[in-house]
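Chapter summary example.
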Amino acid sequence: MEIVRLHYPLSDEITSNEDTVLAMGFFDGFHRGHQAVLEKAKQRAKELGAKFCVLTYNHHPALVYKKLSSHEKRYITLLKDKLALLEKFGVDRVYLVDYTFQFQNQNEVEFVDNFIKRFRAKAVVAGFDHTYGSDPKKANMENLSKFSDGSFEVISVDPINFEGKKVSSTRIRRALDDADVATVNQLLGRPFKTHGVIVHGREVGRLLGYPTANIEHNEMQWLPAIGIYIVAVSYDGKKHLGMASIGRNVTFEDSTAITVEINILDFNENIYGETLTVEWLEHIRDEVKFQTPQDLTTQLYDDEVVTREYLKKHPDILN
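The structure predicted for these 319 residues follows.
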């Protein structure tokens, strides 16, 4: 997959020598709604004999409009992972745009000339609510054909619904903040995944008989809320069942920073420094402050029982 990095205003030599079908969107999460847009673009590109291309952005567009909290700046899918998903989907070329004030300040005609016609788009595909340019009331999918001069087809993709509500990145973020990873996975159409490096921790779990791998995530990664989860961990080409804790170890100290610790069941290898992929499968319970370490150990045993029962009901999760 070719990646073309763009900064507006564009230099004259940036163009396309081939016809393209252009899917537009930020695609944070790469959820089922995004996949519907991309599938439609992929199908149309095949029909037209054109390159299947994506126009997307290097960071949250909202950074240009308002001050974001450290939490709001995070991503469901980090850029590296998003690009990997696009490649796996079969995208031929990604136009990766620096989302700046100058870029968003283009009027609708300027945007069409600079980022659609320039790349020889024969069809443009996006979600029904996608906007572009400086005035969303004008620069929307309903009006896009007015600015095309008949040079490209406009395909607006209807929303994908789950349980009567639209699948969206906003809904996924809220579900993550509510610890509802089961719903997140339904909205994504796959398990929610994160990646992190194994680092040394306090090793309290080892003393309790439940040694944990402490995973250090990218600070820009949106994680589920504090709590205990069933996870699948990928290491050395294999998946392993685990129990993950996102929390502060409140039984031992209230003021510690939030950490991600995973007890990988039936696993006993030294993996410090390794990067693991974590699939978040089910929320077990909230974090609780126990009166004694023994009470915590008893609860961890109960969590393990729940986790193993989950595997019995979903034997394919480790495939």
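To summarize the output: The longest helix spans residues 293-313.
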